Amino acid sequence: TARGIAAVQDEEGIDLRARGLAPGDPVFVVPHGWERLQELTERERDQHLLPYLRPKAIRRLRAHPPSDAPWLIYTTRGNVQEASEIPTLTAHLALAREVLERRRETRRGSRQWFHLHWPRREALLDGPRVLVPRMTVWPSASLIVERCATGESVFTLVPADRRFSALASALLGSLPFALGILLSTKSRGKGI
Questions:
Q1: How far is Cα 119 from Cα 104, in angstroms, rounded to an integer?
Q2: Which of 9, 123, 140, 180 is the 20 to 30 Å CA partner of 64?
């Protein structure tokens, strides 16, 4: 977002700061206590806001979205067709509309400016699955069943038979697995 804002300001001469958007401002992930939370429609709250788990919130064996987790705005071509369906979120995202309209897919007409994500398999967002944070000091895995989203620094594994999610989490989070990973993979940086 910071790069997109700078590019629009430099190339287009549009001052997004004057419109209320500065690099580092929450756009796609909003804080837990976001001031506009109460204005959301029931649909916006239930279908388009997901608790967002950062890698540090994922503990060994079992993960839960923290009570103060930030919210990821989750809008795709599949879950919202018109901006009018999500009025509060559209008003919030309008601050970054110039940046969003510059995306390749939006310019080509394959995505609307308010579609922030490519549709992911719902299995990656809800139900029993295993979260494996990347680039951690100690390899671990966590079972999660709550609806939530993670960033690209977390692998989400969904067993073909979800009954095995807990077992997969236990095996991937075990001491033998962690030692095997540490001994057979390349180190990256300090303690990683």
A1: 17
A2: 180
| Amino acid, single-letter form, for residue 136 | T
Confidence of residue 39 (pLDDT cuts 50, 70, 90): very high
Instruction: Confirm if 185 and 136 have CB atoms less than 8 A apart.
Output: no
pLDDT digits (tens, 9 = 90+) for 81-109: 999 999 999 999 998 888 888 889 999 99
Task: For residue 94, count CB atoms less than 10 angstroms from its CB and return exposed for 0-12, middle for 13-18, buried for 19 or more.
Answer: middle
HSE value, Cβ hemisphere, 13 Å, CA-based, for 110: 7
> b/e for 57-85, b at 16 or more Cβ within 10 A?
bbeeeebbbeeebbbbbbbeeebbeebeb
